[in-house]
Fold:
Amino acid sequence: MTVLLHWLALWPLRLLHRLGACLGWVTYALSPSYRRRLQDNAGRAALTAVQRRAAVGQAGRMVAELPWLWLPPRGRQIDDWVQWRGDTLMEEALEAGRGLVLLTPHLGSFEVCAQAYASRWGARAPMTALYRPARQAWLREVEESSRQRPGLLTAPANLSGVRQMVRALRRGETVGLLPDQVPPDGMGVWAPFFSEPAYTMTLASRLLEQTGAGLLLMWAERRPSSEGWVVHVLRPDDEPGMEGDRSPLAINRFMEGLIRLAPEQYLWGYHRYKQPRQPGGRASGEG
Structure:
């Protein structure tokens, strides 16, 4: 499989995205559980039929572009494929020196967010990204080798990883989290996400409270015709009565706001509403 990934990494991005769109539809057609979950989750956000169909292809593109991102040949730089929107906000936050928490949902290409940040600011303020290793040994090896790069570190999703992120923030560095990822049992609370209770990590809120770090939202929009990505950096929008609120409820609302910017690029097939897994085990109720 590793040889196959290296071979796919040499394909043009446009061709990989075409392959991915086909694979997305094949998965949708052959997996009733995936199809039902995608439709149910998209229905909670009131997506149109057109947006749901687009989301099927975009999910496949997200998977197909991973070899291209993980295993680039010599000379291919992520900077050549990225446009920035809101990068002045990043500059301001790093200049403050308080540490920075970047929140990115399963929207667009979240792998691009980490790589693009590391390439541009990693030498100045390295990013430590929360990391849950794959179950398959061969895939875990590829992930670890690709994600450990200059300016980009990984932290395991356990107490040791939390301590690592706290230390990074206190050094004025950056931490990256996917706050719509379901945490293990005991590491989250139930909070509304598109009006449905979802087990939501408390880690982001705790890091902000303990370190006084800044907070920004970030996501990488997949451009049409496979021309690369636009990386958006935004401030969280506080709703009336929630100014300065950094609770899991508020963070879920921030994520909803981001997702509504490009709902067809959100990973609606992700099992967002599942029961949390026991630490070191499987989620209760998982098949």
Summary: DSSP finds eleven helices and nine strands in the chain. Residues 78-265 form one domain. Residues 189 and 200 are 5 Å apart (CA to CA).
